[in-house]
Amino acid sequence: MKIIRDKNTVEFISNLNCSINNETDEVKKLELYSEIIRKRLLDIVYSSKNGHIGGSLSSVEIETVLYFKIMNISPENKNDSNRDRFILSKGHSVEAYYAILEQAGFIDRKTVDTYGSFNSLLAGHPTKKVPGVELNSGALGHGLSYGIGLALAAKMDNKNYTSYVLMGDGEQGEGSIYEAAMSAGHYKLDNLVAIIDRNTLQISGKTENVMSLEPLRERWEAFGWEVFDVEGNDIKSLIDTFESLDKKNSKPKMLIAHTTKGCGISFMEKVAKWHHGIPNDEQYNEAIEEINDRIKSMCQ
Ligand SMILES: Cc1ncc(C[n+]2csc(CCOP(=O)(O)OP(=O)(O)O)c2C)c(N)n1
To answer: Which of 90, 213, 216, 268 to mutate to test the pocket of ligand 1 (most atoms within 8 A of CB)?
Structure first.
């Protein structure tokens, strides 16, 4: 288990009498981490009056499990050619990503606090200027091709890292994804793990109304991928699935992560306008209270 490093978070947890050194229940600990990430990304959006909160909230558990349990990546090995790679193809969900990179120690709290201000290192979509970020992203439909390139390079160079790509379900409307899907099957990239944040909403409404995706599983299987359905806001379901993957079976992996857009803030859940809504003071306080209540009950 990797430890959350941020000093304020450590103090915050110890004030709650919640020992982060307790190794007894890893799932509970990652659930707690997710809530801390959730709270931090809410702060980032609220104070900058900027961002895409709905899809950030739906992706929190996926990124928490990847960064704090599954991936071989840390600030110490971020330039090592054998590190695992993470590509946030749905780059608009950057607030969750910045909160994760902060908690994992790639960027510091002061830098994250500059988000949304003039000359900040942190733009509204990921850029490679930010330590830990592998790809400039945000124009949807590009991350999978890049992740495939990384996976192919690992095969050619005899490296054993895994390439992870997180996409949106609305993003599945981009045609470039299907060229990538075909090539990953063709090159038998079993070291490639793609994840679709299947929150069923995109910017303007339900994915099934804007550009229908079903039968999503069968479509990916037809391209030669091994497909898994996973509860994408459930830490245990994510860990079990990521840990079960056979990286030697010649098949690229697709996790369809069933999530809730706006997950964890009740009034934002499943409401399309929270794709890029900014909470007002009252809404912010209500959201913080809801998250704090969960954190307190987890720590009892
Ligand atoms: C090529 C491209 N077209 C349009 C956009 C504008 N855009 C930003 S987010 C978004 C919707 C994405 O929906 P989804 O992938 O489901 O993301 P999530 O619901 O997880 O936030 C769109 C169309 C974009 N970023 N890139």
So the answer is: 90
Q: Does residue 67 fall inside a structural domain?
A: yes
Count of structural domains within the chain = 1
Ligand 1 pocket: which residues have CB below 6 Å? 52, 54-55, 58, 90, 92-93, 138-141, 168-171, 197, 199, 201-203, 261, 275
- 202: CA distance to ligand 1 center in Å? 6
Report CA torsion sign: 114, 116, 201, 148.
negative
Domain span holding position 157: 24-298
Using the mean position of ligand 1's atoms as its centre, give its distance from the Cα of residue 283 in Å: 24
- The answer as to whether 206 is a domain residue is yes
Pairing, β 201-202 against β 205-206: antiparallel
Residue 199 domain flag: yes
68-88 tens-digit pLDDT: 999 999 999 999 999 999 999
CATH number at residue 72: 3.40.50.970
Residue range 45-72, pLDDT digits in tens? 999 999 999 999 999 999 999 999 999 9
Q: Is residue 222 part of a domain?
A: yes
CA of 145 from ligand 1 middle (Å) equals 17
For residue 114, give Cα distances in angstroms to 23, 93, 134, 240. Answer: 34, 17, 21, 36
